[in-house]
Amino acid sequence: MNASRKIARWVLAFISSLLLFSLLSLVCVKATLFNQEFMVDQIHQTNYVTRVQNDITQRIQDYGRGSNIPPEQLADVVPAEVVAENVDNYIRGIYTGVPFNIVGQETLEGNIQTAVERYAAEQGIDIDEAAQTNIDQLNATAAGAFESYVAIPYLLEYGQKVMAYNQTLTLLMIIVGVAFLLVFIGLMVTSRWLHRKVRFAAVAVGGAGLMLTVLPLYIYFSGVIDRLGIMSEGMYHFITSYLKAFDLTFVKAGIISLVVAILLIVVSEFLRRKNVSRLKGE
Asked: Is the dihedral of CA 222, 225, 246, 215 positive or negative?
């Protein structure tokens, strides 16, 4: 009878650990891939806005060379705050389904117009109708470059695919959570002594923590994320940082679980010694 109870207890502890691992994994996914604020934070932490600003500026300078405008004259026409606002709006639109529209385009066009007029004045060149047509063309191509660097199609597709499973993920979390509670309660019932209940709770939590920590750490240090083939430097830094932060979310959850498991073991040992002392006293 005792042997059967011990086997049942360890089986329930193992199942509890697997279910807790599954539940915590789903929570990590919900808090990262399904969370627009997580992507926005990664964009700001990787200086993605600055990289996009530099890419747009270089594209505008390339267009300007075709009209004999030196690159340094167009070096400051792209405001960082306008880029940041558009990037944030685009990311939030991915998760909310709100159509994305470029804002601040008038500011960009005004800066280009001012820069070209300043250069023309320095060179003693009159801006005639033909020159203004070239400026308008430069504004149009600059606006196109602005949108192409901010509104990246595959990010939109990624967001739409992710959000399509949002309700399914929530339902799955509820199912796994209920299953874990039922199995965990069954595990607690198999033990009469409180210190054993606490110790097997530590086994379940610690096992989940180990599973959450080992594989993500291996992926992080293996360098597989750094070997992604992305041509754009800014997008490369953003995607790799995004995936690393996603991976480390599991590691953090695993470490917290391991710390909780250690604390439970300490409490269990304290309760065990207290029971032993009480029995000896009797």
From this structure: negative
- Whole-prediction pTM: 0.82
Is residue 126 classed as helix, strand or coil in its secondary structure? coil
Q: Do 26 and 100 meet the contact criterion of CB atoms below 8 Å apart?
A: no
The secondary structure of 180-236, three-state, reads HHHHHHHHHHCCCCHHHHHHHHHHHHHHHHHHHHHHHHHHHHHCCCCCCCCCCHHHH
**Angle, alpha carbons 1-12-219 (nearest 5°):** 145
The answer to whether the beta carbons of residues 79 and 104 sit under 8 Å apart is yes
Distance of CA 120 to the CA centre of its chain: 46
8 A C-beta contact, residue 9 and residue 190: yes
- Spatial contact of 206 and 256, defined as CB atoms under 8 Å apart: no
Give 183-198 pLDDT, tens digit per residue: 999 988 888 888 888 9
